[in-house]
Amino acid sequence: MNAPLTPALLTTCVFGAALLLNVAVKLWLASRQIRAVARHRGAVPAEFARAIPLETHQRAADYTVARLRFGLLELALGAAVLLGWTLLGGLDALNGALLDALGPRPLLQPLALLVAFALINGLIDLPVSAWQTFVIEQRFGFNRMSARLWWADLLKSVALGVLIGVPLAAGALWLMQATGRAWWLWTWGAWMAFSLLMLVLYPTLIAPLFNKFEPLDDAVLRERVAALMARCGFTAKGLFVMDGSRRSAHANAYFTGFGAAKRVVFFDTLLAQLTPPEVEAVLAHELGHFRHRHIVQRIVLLFALSFAGLALLGWLAGQGWFYAGLGVTPNLPASMGGAVPNHALALLLFTGVVPVFMFFVSPLAATLSRRHEFQADAYAARQASAQELSNALVKLYKDNASTLTPDPLYVRFYYSHPPASERMAQLGARVSPA
Ligand SMILES: [Zn+2]
């Protein structure tokens, strides 16, 4: 039998091949990384030998390998779920069941489809996330979460999803149906407006639902930080300490908000590990991201990419082969000429399938991000101290059990930050004993 190559069949083939290649490349990269880490497990790299004990180095290697192995399971599960939704007919069945139950109601049925899809995916992810926290992070001593806190977080996230996500999805579906052919442009505008709003609201309204933020009360550190910010020409609304230790021993610091609403947030775990001059150097690095306009660049890039993405979706949603090729019968009622886009279906297919292709350009994004990190490091070296930043980085690598010996190709694909040895080399700092 010789099936003619219809656009739908071609879509199936291209998607299938891309998914296969995607999984194969990820598998290959992960196994390279596992081998690179295992190969160097026996000895601390020479330049770090004075700062990092062998035992710490080996723990980092074991942690890295454990996470990579688990990542392989997640990769297989993710690919199976995506295949299940698309070519194996899961989305089609769900859509059909909701059509039977609710009828072809223009807003309610697609909204129910989005919600049901999110719920099912959320249920599939639950055991994965629990295993990550209570088995892997736990085994290496990073987890600080009780089961109670984990469930509380989950309930809060679901509540936020219902309060914010459902009205947002309903609004988007309404826009898609009400604004005619240019719906994708309207949807893009609304989505971007929402993203900007969240940038302002997240730090002040949503983050406090999950963590406590208290003003930094360490006078010595506050003075240092204030002097640094004045030197760099920044004003922030406040310096806050976040109780990151409630959930994890991993440490971090970040700078959020816009204009006068800017705030600096230190994890309490970071303050516990670093000396004030080291904290100052880490903050100078964060300020470097602002000074070089990395945040704005990232937002502009996101705007441009989502514009292109929605334009593409706007076109695909009207093509029958797009649905059929991905295992879905679009509900195109004959009374509507059979050419009405199925927005919810199109949206779900699109958000499932696009990342499979986008993975192949991830080295570009990672390269850009690593370049930004180098620029921020250089800024920190000028405004604070290269030596203090280097000391802080070594401590963070050590405490977060990050590997010092990654595979170079793995780095190209995945690393948003340059590996430790490259950052140290660029800072030109000595690695001093801890
Ligand atoms: Zn950075």
From TrEMBL:
Annotated Gene3D superfamilies: Metalloproteases ('zincins'), catalytic domain (3.30.2010.10)
Entry annotated with the keyword Zinc: yes
CDD domains given in the database record: M48A_Zmpste24p_like
TM regions (residue ranges): 6-29, 72-91, 111-136, 157-177, 183-202, 299-324, 344-366
Domain of life of the native organism: Bacteria
Cytoplasm found in the keyword field: no
CAAX prenyl protease 1 N-terminal domain sequence ranges: 33-212
Similarity-based family: Belongs to the peptidase M48 family.
Entry protein name: M48 family metallopeptidase
